Fold:
Amino acid sequence: MLVVMADAFDPRFGEAWSGAQLTGTMIQAGSWTRLAIDDDLVVGFTLCRRIVDETELLLVGVRRDWRGRGIGSILMATAATEATGFGARSMFLEMRDGNAAAAQLYHNQGFVEVGRRRDYYRGVDGQRFDAITFRRNLDVAS
Ligand SMILES: CC(C)(COP(=O)(O)OP(=O)(O)OC[C@H]1O[C@@H](n2cnc3c(N)ncnc32)[C@H](O)[C@@H]1OP(=O)(O)O)[C@@H](O)C(=O)NCCC(=O)NCCS
Structure:
């Protein structure tokens, strides 16, 4: 996952997690991850966390050379299906403002913008970006 994350996340925005952050979250109760694998190579992943009847999609990433083939969409749809199976009624996620590919993916998957945190992310050059919160209802098919 770390290798995919290093490839997937643009270092300018400082969004990639450290190994300690990843393992610290993955060992928490209610967390789960899924890998997209092509010929023994991990090309994408999701990391989610369930808290009672809500699920948070913490990370989704696809290697650059594997993008635009629907892998991100499959990972997101799988996360939603699994969250529903675990009893979640909604899924939340946060995105850096201006992340056009992620925004398109989330809209396609039925997420709508429900909030914004001003200047939440800080890029490596100190530039600030809002965090946009998206929500998807898991009760209805979308
Ligand atoms: C977001 C991401 C996971 C999408 O993965 P992917 O495998 O390319 O996703 P898909 O192939 O399923 O495509 C999803 C949609 O994004 C669209 N898309 C891809 N790149 C785009 C771009 N630069 N601008 C706008 N839309 C874009 C695709 O066209 C597709 O929409 P469509 O079906 O309506 O055409 C991938 O770009 C990524 O890893 N980004 C870096 C990590 C990141 O920012 N993660 C989100 C925050 S945790």
About this structure: The first helix runs from residue 2 to 8. The mean pLDDT is 94. DSSP finds four helices and six strands in the chain.
